[in-house]
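Predict structure. Chain length: 448.
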Amino acid sequence: MTVAESLQALREKIESRNPAEPEFQQAVNLVLDNLGPVVTRHPEYADAKLLERICEPERQIIFRVPWVDDAGEVHINRGFRVEFNSALGPYKGGLRFHPSVGLGVVKFLGFEQIFKNSLTGLPIGGGKGGSDFDPKGKSDAEIMFFCQSFMTELYRHIGEYTDVPAGDIGVGTREIGFLFGQYKRITNRYESGALTGKGLVWGGARVRTEATGYGTAYFVEEMLAANGSGLDGRQVIVSGSGNVAIYAIKKVQALGGRVVACSDSSGYVFDRAGIDVELLRQVKEVERGGIAVYAERRGAVASYAPGKPVWEVPCEVALPCATQNELDTSAAKQLIESGVIAVAEGANMPCTPEAVRLLRDAGVLFGPGKAANAGGVATSALEMQQNASRDSWTFEYSEQRLREIMRDIHASCFETAGKYGRPGDYALGANVAGFCRVADAMLALGVI
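Prediction complete.
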């Protein structure tokens, strides 16, 4: 059987074993599409069935989460934790609280996390978790009760040497606090390395809040620099207006870019004077309002486009920072026609495979999420390091470490793409570089 035939057989096997999980199948195919040359060079990977093994989670945990709302009504949600691969270290990956969460979504996120964590060069494996619980519109008390119930089951599966969750969509410092409080209460241990994304006064790390957005900005800066350009003076658009988007906007502007549009689920705002980050943060993070409120407060320089995609705004750089598959072929065509030169994924798999192909065929620089948004998990690993040594680093030193890691990730992707005859193909570079480090560790550990 040829390499191509064996890869196709594996795709078919994964589809049959994981029905009704399109996000997971998509994530797997995006990696397998790039691994043919790797298997040809390293037949030992095929002999040890590494591709098949890496596509199967080491452990999948599903549990019920009962909780009581402020009116005394009992609700039942479903909790998940997929511990995908621990060849490089303890499982590491966020918890997502959102109605869209199901096993397929968590598996896709956990699979991506394996390679993202590998690219950081830090000793962390890949995992992911969450619940179909929706924190929107819930009181602090309701969120606390849910988090306590969620951790009452999850605690037995995690720990600083086993599995270290963090935050993701719907899970910020507030939720991590409630989760960690319950973990400490049940275990009777102040095991601060068991969760990351904690508050600064109780074991958190500086720059962790900003890390994913900052890291995405640093990665796109490196991509442009490798092509003799930069962010200075570039018109930039960002999808989303949550944590990742806010801090991507802030750092892009600090690096000389001009962010003129961002969005949420209701539409987008165009600000011809450039997005006011502090006003955006006040509206979205403090008041938990919609993007329309930003436009109202900003005045005549801003306009709100309800129900419209942000991709219709002309730009040179686009940063999708919202959710999976938000940038499709139609959006890619709009971006190409407007003269976009670079797209970097701040979210996990926000571009459809067809959109990625269109962008690459048009010569647009494309930074895949597993590389471009790895700054968040990298800084989480640095938080674990500080927890282990009972230390706390300054903001400046922490940001310096983040920037060094993102520079190294870019270099690894860039050099690997060139080594495999595809210079400038960051998707191939990220997938191959991430896979090879995990594969070598799996070989060293034997069949487990």
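Summary: The mean pLDDT is 97.
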